[in-house]
Design goal:
Elements (H helix, E strand, L loop, with lengths): L4 H9 L8 H8 L4 H6 L16 E5 L6 H14 L8 E7 L2 H16 L4 E7 L19 E6 L7 E3 L10 E9 L12 E9 L5 E5 L5 E8 L1 E7 L5 E5 L3 E5 L6 E5 L5 E2 L9 E5 L11 H12 L6 E5 H8 L2 H4 L11 E5 L5 E5 H8 L6 E5 L6 E3 L8 E5 L12
Parallel strand pairs: 1-2, 2-3, 3-4, 4-6, 5-6, 6-7, 7-9, 8-10, 9-11, 10-12, 11-13, 12-14, 13-15, 15-16, 16-17, 17-19
Antiparallel strand pairs: 18-21, 19-20
Helix pairs in contact: 4-5
Amino acid sequence: MEFDHNKVRRVVEEDRLSSLPDELIHHIMSYFDMKFAVQTCLLSSRWKLLWTSMPCLNFSSWQFGTLCNFAKFVTHILSHHNHPELVSSINVNFLGGAANHLLLKKIAKYAFSHNVQQLNVVTWPVSNLVNYPPCLLSSQSLKHFTFSTCHVTPTRIILKTPLDFPALTTLHLSGIKLCDDLFSKCVSLKDLTIEQFAVEDDLEVYDIIAPRLCNLRLIYGSGFKLINVIAPQLENLTIIDCSINYLKAPPGLSSLCYTGYPLMRLCKVGFHSLNKATIGLFNYHSIIRYKVGDARKIISMLLKLHSVRYLTLNADIIECLSSFPDLLSHYLSPFSNLICLTIDYKDGYKVKMYTEVINFLLENSPSATFIMKLPKFQNKILTRIMNFSGLLMIMLKHEDDESRKFS
């Protein structure tokens, strides 16, 4: 078979990428920094002005040797964009400092004056005392906002000015210290995530006020005595490793996910429409011996989750409850609506499960499915289990061990 050298040459010389429509090329270029996007103008006349109509602008100060060069580049891009009204998102990753905050102010002013829908800011502050421009915290058109600080200390920037985003639906904050009443002006907010955060030291109670909030995630927070969530439409609440003593949450929650140590206390009498709950302790059992107070807090929380239909508990919860089986004999099972109970075990975990634990969890829902979730194993569906000693013990040794089904 002979090669058609002319055909091979035509295939090599053909620029298929340049033949793609602008929208697709813009989508590909949106994954890269604007410095790279501008450099593509050297490829051919087809690429010369493509960067001037990009709807997604990504700026990173790490791509430049000096702040002055970075500022000149950003100014050039913003002033030479042919269709600023089509810019839908701006992403900024920069080293903090007074000079760079002036640049950030310019970017925010550009974004808000052109009705940009999404703004993501990742900053590396050189100090914990930086005051961010107020214009960054107020926009009539912004719908999605991420503000994240990266630093070696747990708490970075203090936000004392209430956020004023009436059109905002999604907000993600990370590495900040919160003032009181930060979200009440975000009247359209539906999805809120706060990570690596704390509150001002003089606040005994922290209110999260958001009338239309549906999803709330609190991750790695500290310094809370009581959190009061005033969000009547809240459906999904996730709390991971937050030092919260008490939580007041709307009773109409549909989903609750909580992991931490020690467990927080729920101030409400209970949730009347809870469909799904996932509760876990961190794996401290090998370092800290569980106390009877830990078991009491677990029981108190579970009693308030009485309406749940799908309940998942991690192995540490079972370990703690099984350490005080006599304590459970004083309580009736609160779960009359339970459809499925899942116990999530760890690799190499020795599990003790007493009859009192089984009764407390399943006695009022005898037809509920009982699933032991084994890592990298096929999950096994179990019926109620108890032996003559009232103790179920399972040892998981290796991932390739053959798991068993009990009935």
